[in-house]
Specification:
- The structure is a single chain.
- The protein is of the alpha+beta class.
- The chain is 26% helix and 16% strand.
- The two termini are 22 Å apart.
- The longest helix has 11 residues, at 73-83.
Amino acid sequence: MPYNRVRSVELDQSFHFSIPNLRPAKYLLFAAEEDDSEAWDNAQFIEQLQSSATELELQEKQQSTVHLKLIPKDETDRVRKALGI
């Protein structure tokens, strides 16, 4: 799956988020304790964490609700160290 764009969002006070105006496509969704934009711009980093992602395919005018598994900081640190980033 090509990595075209990374979009970060923050949770609201109820631990929810929304991303308006997504085009119909397949998406990989991640929830991580730490937001390191340099790492998330790296396709190898994303590939290493892909098993922790939730895949979502949106159709035209479709809305969806998903529950994401949190990736702990220890795991993202391990992947960054292994990749040297």
